[in-house]
Design goal:
This protein is 47% helix and 13% strand. The model is unreliable at 1-38, 264-269, 288-304 and 470-486 (pLDDT under 50). It is α/β, with parallel strands linked by helices and 486 residues long. The protein is globular, with a radius of gyration of 23 Å. Belongs to the GRAS family. It holds the Pfam family GRAS. A motif (VHIID) lies at residues 155-159.
Length: 486
């Protein structure tokens, strides 16, 4: 029996008294230990983590030190997903306590300074290889692109997934195009990534595959990150030709465009929020566990009343390109809450489920334990630190839920495109191929939600510009791409 199946039976935090925070999640994953003694000790991790977060919010070094010592002691019992996550959270809380202290924040080393680029890129690839959800996202997105480009002779695919980009996704799409009735189209692929070596390797792999399949192919590398692209001249940056059929794929990147200067720590409102954070965290720390629980906790809405300017500029630029379809995959979590308390509880639940899923993958494939450890420390660990430590423009891991993304897309002039039965079915088949009972999917408003147990982890949705601004016209005669990389 996989750990997630026992998690729901282990503990539940009783909800606090009715107050402003009634909608925050109150359940935390806890792996079941064979020995009930260690399990009893691990059950204390939840309250200790909440207590530590409250002490950090208070700014108490002495109390935080005691809580951190307790966390270290509890996590030393046995190696497991919750223990490893708790250590990362403890590190994040310690950093959050130090950051306001003059001189301390400048002494903290940014991950980009101590992670060598090749090792970091390996960790990114390991995440795509290990995660059942990213593989499922690739399969679903590819099917949606194939359906949108069914009758096109020349197809331009724009991959804006940046660090999540993986040549495996496009190799499989080329093979699907090769088997298309009536023959394959000419394919142009533009990939945005911040690693020139990665782009060179990707170009080499895809060009060889296209040569073998005899598909006319062009590869257009763009060095950069999504948030640094010049949206005023996106057509030229991405080498989009007027009138061509365009499909845009953007996985796990658009949340970085939600950045706003929401740091209110110096205001009176900020002080009131700080006091509310402390009170709420203390209540959760003192809550009593019960033997049964449900993971279907209420979902806290994002505080965004308007689409942030950077995201709005990006979506306006995308709409002007008149793509046939745009596929979006995002983390389905509310890590964009203004209040630290909301973010802390949401991150604790979300990453506990994600760590547990990767633990199950590595458990079924013990030789991949090193890959799992690298992903936890270098990719997920740094996401958690950004969510819990950073504020304002420095916080870029601003994940939001599917309903909030739908709001942003609709405001920016996009219509929702329902995922087809076949796209959802192929995604489900890919997810089930990993053989993990914890992997689940749900269809919500013709979008796909990928879950571990009952916890939503990722969403996949499809969009196109509103009628009247959508593609379909062929304003210029298109030239078939040469059968080579340029």
């Amino acid at each position: 029996m996989w750990p997630w199946q026992q998690i729901e039976k282990l503990l539940k935090l009783r909800p606090p008294e009715p107050n402003y925070y009634l909608n925050i999640p109150r359940v935390m994953y806890m792996p079941l230990m064979q020995d009930q003694g260690p399990a009893d000790h691990l059950a204390q991790l939840g309250p200790v983590l909440y207590t530590c977060a409250a002490h950090v919010t208070e700014g108490s070094f002495e109390k935080t030190d005691i809580s951190l010592s307790q966390i270290k002691s509890l996590t030393s019992i046995v190696d497991g997903p919750l223990q490893r996550l708790s250590l990362i959270i403890a590190d994040s809380l310690a950093r959050r306590l130090l950051c306001p202290v003059q001189g301390f924040s400048g002494a903290l080393i940014h991950p980009s300074d101590y992670f060598e680029q090749p090792i970091l890129q390996t960790a990114r690839c390991n995440l795509a290889n290990l995660s059942p959800y990213i593989s499922t996202g690739f399969a679903t997105i590819n099917r949606a692109i194939l359906e949108a480009m069914e009758n096109e002779k020349v197809v331009h695919i724009v991959d804006l997934s940046c660090s999540t980009s993986h040549p495996r996704q496009w190799i499989k799409l080329l093979r699907e195009f090769h088997g298309r009735q009536g023959g394959p189209p000419g394919v142009r692929l533009t990939v945005v990534h911040d690693n020139n070596g990665f782009l060179a390797d990707m170009r080499s792999l895809l060009s060889k595959e296209a040569d073998m399949l005899k598909i006319p192919f062009q590869f257009n590398p763009v060095i950069g990150r999504l948030e640094t692209l010049g949206f005023n001249n996106l057509r030229n940056t991405l080498n989009i030709k007027y009138g061509e059929a365009v499909a845009i794929s953007c996985s796990l990147q658009m949340h970085r465009l939600l950045v706003v200067d929401d740091n209110m720590s110096c205001s009176g409102i900020g002080q009131l929020q700080k006091m509310a954070n402390i009170a709420q965290l203390k209540k959760m720390a003192s809550s009593v566990y019960s033997p049964t629980s449900t993971l279907n906790y209420p979902q806290t809405p994002s505080p965004q009343c308007q689409t942030p300017k950077l995201l709005a500029s990006f979506l306006n630029a995308i709409r002007a390109l008149k793509p046939n379809i745009m596929l979006v995959m995002e983390q389905d979590a509310n890590h964009n809450a203004l209040l630290f308390c909301d973010r802390f509880v949401e991150a604790l639940n979300y990453y506990a489920a994600l760590f547990d899923s990767l633990h199950a993958v590595a458990g079924a494939n013990p030789q991949r334990a090193d890959e799992r450890a690298r992903v936890e420390r270098m990719i997920l660990g740094e996401e958690i630190k950004n969510i819990l430590v950073c504020e304002g423009v420095h916080r870029h891991e601003r994940h939001e839920r599917l309903s909030q993304w739908a709001m942003h897309m609709n405001r920016s002039g996009f219509d929702h495109v329902p995922l087809s039965f076949r796209a959802i079915w192929e995604g489900n088949q890919k997810l089930m191929s990993f053989g993990l009972n914890g992997c689940q999917n749900k269809v919500e408003n013709d979008c796909l939600l990928l879950c571990w147990g009952s916890t939503h982890l990722y969403s996949i949705s499809a969009w196109r510009p509103h009628k009247g601004s959508s593609s379909g016209s062929r304003e210029h005669m298109l030239v078939q791409p040469q059968h080579q990389i340029i």
